Amino acid sequence: MKKLIFILCLLLTHALQAQMLLKGKINHAKPGQKVNVNVPYDVWYHKQNSQEVALNTKGEFTVVLPVKKPQTIFLDFDGTRLYLYAEPSKTLTIQADAKDFINSLKFKGKLAPENAFWYKTGLTMQKLYPQNWNDTLTYPSEILASIKASQATALQTLKNAKLRNKNFLRITAADISYFASSKLFDLIYKNDVWSVGHVSKHSRQEWLEALKTAYSNQPLSNVSAIGSFHYGQTIAYYPRFLEMSCQSKEEFMKLCEEIFGKPFAEINKEVRAKGENYWQYKALNYGLEGHALENALASLITNGLESGEIAYLPEAYEDFLKKFPNSSHKAHLTEAMKPLLQSKTATVTTEIILEENSSNFKLLEEILAQHKGKAVYIDMWGSWCGPCREEFKYTAALKEKFKGKPVDFVYIAFEHSSEPEKTWKDMITFYMLEGRHILGSKELEEYFRNLYASKGTLSYPSYLLIDKNGEVVNLQAERPSAGEKLYNQIEQLLR
Fold first, then answer.
1. What's the predicted TM-score (pTM) here?
2. 13-110 sits in which CATH class?
3. For 425-442, what is the mean pLDDT?
């Protein structure tokens, strides 16, 4: 009996060591307001890693988080995101006033000194102060110079700080050192520098020169930086950095041939078939080595699984195990890969109906012909669409809500890969999407573009509600993640 009690105590201690207690009080918060806390595997935000907690009448909340390593976690409140330092088996309490959330922040608990330091230097808000530039107007070179000056000040402040937490000191030093490359990428995406909706007043070349400077002289295979958010983001963006750095198509083709070791025509065909993850996996192998590469590849595979970008992941996983058979990430990846690997051999259930002659459909009326007398919820998606995949995680609750009721679920996918039918089927079986499935033709997609023309443009995902008479009653129905809002829309059609 004593031995059993001892084992149970050990198990309980281990479980507690893989958790962190986060508490808070936000004065003057509105009734019913919530905080959302996200514990990422590395740097990517995914809803499934979040816990949403409602504040009580005093503005208080408590949440136990599955923190297994020293890392950054995200806390969202009223449109503001905080980046907090977290460690397993530690505690943190935040206090603030909703009327001036950022300026009123205070910290208590075992991790209070660490988070107070981040707050003082600006890392809590992903800003190193002072910040006296406008990211759409200021020259990228000036932004970089401002960041570099702030980095130097922050590193000196860290050196003088009387903090003994070695993990925190290591991670924070890396956060400060890699802040420029990480932040510049954020600003590039914020300003749509590489897209049609370019917001910045400055050219791609100006942004690229600043980004190149930020990446230069920064070691990519930096083991001591693992766990740092800004190092992790710098590495995650590295494949994109390689693409951006090429000044011409010929230069990019030459780089690809160097990375893949084969002619560009073959590379182009393979990437089209295997997806973006294939390029990223090869690019990381090209630029990193050792434990840094191991960590980056584990992050890439995990992010792919969590975001639903499943193309090439089985091959990446097998290659990872060969490269790093004793990896500390092995247990996590093996468990995380199970649903995908099982979906490859799973039998399609009778509740999943794949239209064999999808290309015959040119009009919505043709699709609705077999759903007379029922309400229909149509989900238009594509495997390439991140928000589309994100919504699939809420479909089980939606189907359960209307189980046994006269509601049909129809999924219309528009694929752009070199193997559209395979990509389509792989995604359906991975998410086990019960319902009727149509692989849309170009003519059908054009039909929907015209249908949505009066509402602006067709975007993905889009959802339609059809009443029992086959009439479109809502071209912009709520998403599955909307929960009760969507349920109410569907229930109105059943009355």
1. 0.88
2. mainly beta
3. 93
